[in-house]
């Protein structure tokens, strides 16, 4: 089957590594100066290849990909009889390092030695490219596979889900059915995740029916079904799935049900489910994420009380969720109190607190906290999300110079490549400051460095042009935005407002006509409030 090839610039959101440049430096220094200490000797290079493969795999399992890579490099210099099993372990090491360049080198050596022809080897390549964000390469390797088993198909399915492409993931599922591939529990779980992302209720029901007809293990798939029905707002169906499981239920099922009920404001059922099993930190964390999404302070406080009673307040992950919930509900002082009380602050703790200050208009405090975080470099390092929070805080508070310094640090100090979101925030900062030439200079530099403009970039450029009355380049941004997202009403309204600001009423009328023709409606603004005495409910106020 010829798979979809039109994602040449689509990249998955990537995990941040501490000083990727430092990792490269460590590897290079070790290879050239032989100063890296590992627990293997020269004898490991001359022993049976299966024993050496086992040693490389052990390093990977222990989370030490650098040692695995150095052993592999030494092995290749000492002997030529490496096999596919050698390469598959090294590919997992490249995945842990999140360095596609190393993975590409390994791929080239596999082609050279003929070790890339087997299904297992190619599946490992698909997995590596997928996890390193190289979607096109993953699809290309899959297309080259002569024999594809269910594991290979699942790797491709995970690839599209990881890159937030649920439509393509559903397409893979349909292709598997056409190819008469027997669907595994993993396949069906992935299919349900795709349906949840698409809010495709009927399609999800069909997958549920397939699960029943195939006689699959409901204990394994029940959590995925509960997550799916909760995500599309069908809590009653989620409860039916939960209640249909007679006998043993694990914590994961309870956690999924509690989280789903909280997300849908079904608090009676949520607390009833929590009463059936001893509360755990994971369940409370999941529930708190739902409270944050709903901006539900009352429910969040109830979860906080449960956490205090059960003694979970020393759990860093749970405290991070509490901090984020209070911040999004506007209770910055409570968030700060929680932050100060966290014994082992991780990067999420710092980032949540920086974001809390920024989203509540306290940009100066966000910058100061970021500076304090940088002093703790031996314990924790900022990641790309941290920088995004700082840039956003600078933009909301008009801190232009601080924003410039932050954007410079991102690459020069920490070796991180700016994502489109970073560029959009930086463009917004410069646009608000009236530096329209700087705005377009950043855009051109971004394109030269190979980053494809997203809708967020064009929105930032359009807003900057509108603020600075840059009509000609603003029209360019408007044109590209509508080409990229022709059916999104909010973007059409934004472009319409730009043309209204410059007096082009003919274009305004034309855009309104397009919206009517396509049946698009401007999304109404709203605010959530908790009605006293009726905390389970909220009302929306159209603005």
* Neighbour order of strands in the largest sheet: 1-2
DSSP strand tally: 2
Report, as a whole number of angstroms, the end-to-end distance.
Answer: 50 Å
Give the CATH level 1 class of the domain at 446-524.
Answer: Mainly Alpha
Point out poorly predicted stretches: 1-22, 29-41, 532-543
CATH architecture of the domain at 446-524: Alpha Horseshoe
Largest sheet: 2 strands, antiparallel
- Radius of gyration from the CA trace? 26 Å
Assembly level: single chain
Q: Output the CATH topology of the domain at 446-524.
A: Serine Threonine Protein Phosphatase 5, Tetratricopeptide repeat
The total of helices stands at 29
Average pLDDT over all residues: 83
What overall form do the CA principal axes indicate?
globular
Structural class, from helix and strand content?
mainly alpha
Q: What share of residues are in beta strands?
A: under 5%
**Helical residue percent band:** 55-70%
PPR repeats: 118-148, 149-183, 346-380, 419-453
GO molecular function, one term: RNA binding
Keywords: Cell cycle, Cell division, Hydrolase, Protease, Repeat
InterPro entries: E_motif, PPR_At4g14850-like_plant, PPR_rpt, TPR-like_helical_dom_sf
Quick description:
By secondary structure, this protein is mainly alpha-helical.
Could you characterize what this model shows?
By secondary structure, this protein is mainly α. It has a domain at 446-524: Serine Threonine Protein Phosphatase 5, Tetratricopeptide repeat (Alpha Horseshoe), CATH 1.25.40. The chain contains 29 helices and 2 strands. It has helices spanning 20-33, 49-61, 65-78, 84-97, 100-113, 119-131, 135-144, 150-162, 166-178, 185-198, 201-213, 218-231, 235-244, 251-263, 267-275, 281-294, 297-310, 316-328, 332-341, 347-359, 363-374, 384-397, 400-412, 420-432, 436-448, 455-467, 471-484, 489-501, 505-518, and strands at residues 528-530, 538-540. It has a two-stranded antiparallel sheet with strand order 1-2. Helix 4 packs parallel to helix 6 and helix 26 runs parallel beside helix 28. Mean pLDDT is 83; it is low at 1-22, 29-41 and 532-543. PPR repeats lie at residues 118-148, 149-183, 346-380, 419-453.
């Amino acid at each position: 089957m010829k798979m979809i090839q039109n994602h040449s610039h689509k990249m998955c959101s990537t995990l941040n590594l501490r000083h990727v440049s430092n990792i490269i430096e460590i590897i290079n220094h070790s290879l050239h100066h032989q100063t890296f200490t590992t627990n293997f000797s020269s004898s490991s290079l001359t022993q049976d290849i299966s024993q050496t493969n086992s040693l490389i795999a052990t390093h990977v399992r222990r989370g030490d990909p650098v040692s695995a890579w150095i052993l592999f490099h030494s092995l290749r210099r000492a002997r030529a009889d490496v096999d596919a099993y050698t390469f598959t372990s090294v590919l997992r090491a490249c995945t842990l390092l999140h360095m596609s360049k190393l993975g590409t080198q390994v791929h080239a050596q596999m082609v050279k030695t003929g070790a890339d022809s087997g299904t297992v080897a190619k599946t490992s390549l698909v997995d590596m490219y997928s996890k390193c964000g190289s979607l096109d390469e993953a699809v290309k390797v899959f297309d080259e596979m002569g024999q594809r088993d269910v594991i290979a198909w699942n790797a491709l399915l995970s690839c599209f889900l990881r890159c937030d492409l649920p439509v393509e993931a559903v397409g893979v599922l349909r292709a598997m059915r056409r190819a008469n591939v027997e669907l595994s529990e993993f396949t069906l779980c992935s299919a349900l995740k795709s349906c949840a992302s698409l809010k495709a209720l009927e399609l999800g029901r069909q997958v549920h029916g397939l699960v029943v007809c195939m006689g699959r293990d409901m204990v394994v798939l029940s959590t995925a079904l509960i997550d799916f029905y909760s995500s599309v707002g069908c809590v009653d169906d989620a409860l039916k799935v939960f209640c249909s499981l007679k006998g043993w239920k694990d914590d994961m099922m309870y956690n999924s049900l509690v989280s789903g009920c909280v997300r849908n404001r079904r608090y009676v059922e949520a607390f009833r489910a929590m009463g059936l099993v001893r509360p755990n930190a994971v369940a409370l964390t999941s529930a708190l994420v739902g409270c944050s999404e709903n901006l539900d302070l009352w429910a969040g406080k109830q979860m906080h009380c449960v956490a205090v009673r059960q003694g979970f307040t020393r759990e860093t992950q749970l405290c991070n969720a509490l901090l984020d919930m209070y911040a999004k509900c506007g209770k910055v002082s409570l968030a700060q109190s929680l932050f100060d009380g966290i014994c082992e602050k991780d990067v999420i703790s710092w980032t949540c607190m920086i974001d809390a200050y920024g989203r509540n208009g306290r940009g100066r405090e966000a910058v100061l906290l970021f500076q304090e975080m940088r002093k703790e470099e031996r314990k924790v390092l900022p990641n790309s999300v941290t920088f995004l929070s700082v840039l956003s805080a600078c933009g909301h508070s008009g801190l232009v110079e601080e924003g410039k310094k932050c954007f410079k640090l991102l690459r020069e100090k920490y070796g991180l490549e700016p994502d489109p979101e970073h560029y959009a925030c930086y463009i917004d900062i410069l646009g608000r400051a009236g530096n329209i030439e700087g705005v377009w200079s950043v855009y051109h530099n971004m394109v030269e460095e190979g980053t494809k403009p997203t809708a967020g970039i064009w929105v930032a450029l359009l807003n900057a042009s509108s603020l600075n009355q840059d009509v000609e380049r603003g029209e360019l941004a408007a044109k590209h935005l509508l080409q990229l997202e022709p059916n999104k009403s909010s973007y059409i309204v934004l472009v319409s407002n730009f043309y209204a600001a410059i007096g082009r009423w003919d274009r305004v009328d034309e855009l309104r006509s397009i919206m009517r023709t396509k049946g698009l409606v401007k999304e109404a603004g709203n605010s959530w409030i908790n009605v006293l005495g009726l905390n389970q409910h909220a009302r929306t106020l159209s603005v």
